Amino acid sequence: MQEIKPLLKTTIAEALNRLGVAELPEIIVQETPPGKEGDYGTPVAMGLARVLRKAPPLIATEIAERLTLPAWVRRTFVTGGYLNFELEPAFLAQTASQPLEPLTPQPGKVLLEHTSVNPNKELHVGHLRNICLGDSLARILRFAGREVEVMNYIDDTGRQAAESLYALEHFGLGDSEGDQKYDHFAGEAYVRLHQEMQDPEKKTTIEHGVQETLHRLERGELRGAVERILRAQLETMYRLGAEYDALVWESDIVREGLLEKAMQALEGTPYVHRPTEGKYAGAFVMDMSPFIPGLEDPYLVLIRSNGTSTYTAKDIALQFWKMGLLGGVKFKPYDTQPSGHALYSSAPEGQPMGFGAATETINVVDARQSHALRIVQASLEVEGRPDLAQHCFHLAYETVLLEGQQMSGRKGITVSVDEVLDEAVRRARAIIAEKNPEHPSPETAAEAIGVGAVRFAMIKSEAKKQIDFRYEQALSFEGDTGPYVQYAFARACSILRKAEEQGLGGEAPDFSQATAYELELAKVLLRFRETVQEAARAKAPHLLAQYLLDLAAAWNTYYNAKTPEGKPATVVLGAPEGLRGLRLGLVRSLQRTLQLGLGLVGLQAPEVM
Question: Which of 27, 59, 87 is the C-terminal boundary of a domain?
Fold first, then answer.
């Protein structure tokens, strides 16, 4: 498949050189708006008006006179300050019908960390966006040619894990009862413990028990208990379609001495010291003022005066390991994921493997942690590696409401991801029973539609915007939803199935019969590659989600198009020979593009809805 816009940009750049433009501006090529002449246009003349001291229409005319046009450009013309291109219809239709080719491999490894939920209770709605954003971005980056390593960080030495494990012991709880998932069982104990801590006398006893549990976690005595909760959480992650390359346990980072090594590396810089007096006396402190100006208090404690490390210190050690400044973490096989992809876990008894040592890192963490992530990034500058700091990216996202309600795990005001998925699938099953009672596999389709609706709702909006998830909106077969895109795919599959049944699947296309209807659909199809590249560059999965909505809308417009007399204008199977082959080719291309795009945002593509 030829990439039309890059080829047009090259053609324009060559014309600008002939015009004598010494410093080329950014050359933008866009599709012309509906109802306007031409297929593509560029506003480059407007950006040159001040430099060349000429009116944009005159500059556009001079560029046009110096163009060496590819054979597939029918004509160029100037409209206002724009230079527009009209392409050969047959070329456009043929190009859009070609199979999608892989994007060029890019150098360097991206280490993408997402999910990283405390292993102490079930996942709730607040975790949904993190998982869906991270998993979708990993898929997009891989398709865009990047080597991607996906990591899930397990905070098994933190207070939350200690509280859940102590709660299970404190209340004399053993296994979960009945079919209850173990992470839900542990989560109930966690909430119950916090309720009991409202009593000051009980709080003292509980605090002592939690601290003892923390020490046991640090010694590695309770890893099996944490792992039991983690495996229950993984069931939910897998159901969402998320998979990982490696689990990295915080206890392994500490046990392998990475924290100590990171602190030693920082101690050799002029920005870290141990004050002997004042409020920081005896602590290990980093001065952030040269790297993050404007802080009210630029001093950051890494190691407290009592010798305990802060969360920030552990995060810095992890980041140093991610970018190859520290070694020593060993791994072993942990699980075979639903796709068959192997999952590895850090482990003291494991072997050195190729995880870490990335040239770029992406941390998917909610926007409330932006300052903490900026400190981790700045620690690389403190260490004298601004080159690595430039490639340390925080994908910050805003919170998720469920039907307008904010979540709080500690207060027990949560709705679990499992409950959300079950409810979405239940509603999808009811819609299928109403709209297609003869569906050949309703349960499979309901799972694909329900889970897909939840995933799509989590990524269709820009990450910096808050989401209020509402079932009725997310599960609609119309509007900006996952089921809307899935239904567009299923409709294409239906046409292609009928073509095969009628023996028309192999009909040769006659691209010279392309009409304006085909050209509009073709131009949207041709936007796929650049959209994926931009989503990868900007680390913005919502760009691809919005493209899929645009493509589904373009397909529905094409499918329902009418002639001026009110008759169907784009009949596929009943079209004349040659035009029918052309239209089947476009439908096939649409089917491939929708299936691939849905896969990149983590949705299944059911052939029957």
Answer: 87
DSSP string across 424-447: HHHHHHHHHHHH-TT-S-HHHHHH
3-class DSSP state of 465: coil
| Alpha-carbon span 517 to 572, nearest angstrom | 12
42: left (phi over 0), alpha (psi -120 to 50) or beta: beta
Q: Is residue 135 part of a domain?
A: no
Residue 409, pLDDT above cutoff 60: no
- Span 116-122, average pLDDT: 96
Closest by CA to 234, choosing from 52, 417, 442, is: 417
Q: Is 233 contained in some domain?
A: no
Q: Is 61 helix (H, G, I), strand (E, B) or coil?
A: helix
Q: Please say whether the beta carbons of 301 and 280 come within 8 A.
A: yes
Cα–Cα dist 181/123, whole Å: 11
Which range marks the domain in which residue 476 is found? Answer: 417-600
**Structural domain includes residue 100:** no
322: phi then psi, degrees, rounded to nearest 5: -55, -40
Query: Given this model, what pLDDT does residue 410 score?
Result: 56
Give me 553's structure tokens.
């809308």
d(CA 51, CA 359): 39
Q: 3-state DSSP call for residue 394?
A: strand
Whole-structure pTM value: 0.94
Q: Which amino acid is at 252?
A: D
Alpha carbon distance 500, 506 (integer Å): 8
Domain harbouring 66, CATH code: 3.30.1360.70
Among the candidates 72, 87, 102, a domain finishes at: 87
Q: What is the CATH number of the domain that holds 588?
A: 1.10.730.10
Element (H, E) at 157: none
Helical spans, DSSP H, in 502-540: 516-525, 528-538
Bridge-partner residues for 284, per DSSP?
Answer: 303
The pLDDT tens digits for 291-300 are 999 998 999 9
For 423-440, the pLDDT digits (tens) are 999 999 999 999 999 999
CB proximity list for 288: less than 8 A, separation 6 or greater: 271, 295, 298, 299, 300, 375, 378
Closest CA to 239 of 132, 118, 343: 132
Integer Cα distance of 367 and 36 in angstroms: 42
Q: Which of 484, 312, 368 minimizes the C-alpha distance to 126?
A: 368
User: Cα separation of 347 and 235, whole Å?
Assistant: 21
Kindly state whether residue 297 falls inside one of the protein's structural domains. Answer: no
**Is the separation of the CB atoms in 248 and 329 below 8 Å?**
yes
Report how far residue 441's alpha carbon sits from residue 425's, in angstroms, rounded to the nearest whole number. Answer: 14
Tokens read off for 287: 């001065």
Using alpha carbons, select from 78, 98, 76, 99 the residue that is nearest to residue 87. Answer: 76
What is residue 408's predicted lDDT score, i.e. its pLDDT?
Answer: 63
Cα(192)–Cα(139) distance, integer angstroms: 39
Q: How many CA atoms lie within 13 A of 186 on its CB side?
A: 25
Residues in the chain: 609
Give the three-class secondary structure for 401.
Answer: strand
Residue 234 neighbours by CB under 8 Å, 6+ apart = 335
Q: Alpha-carbon distance 326 to 470, whole Å? A: 45
Distance of alpha carbon 570 from its chain centroid, rounded? Answer: 35
Number of domain units in the chain: 2
Measured distance CA(71)–CA(299) in Å, rounded: 64
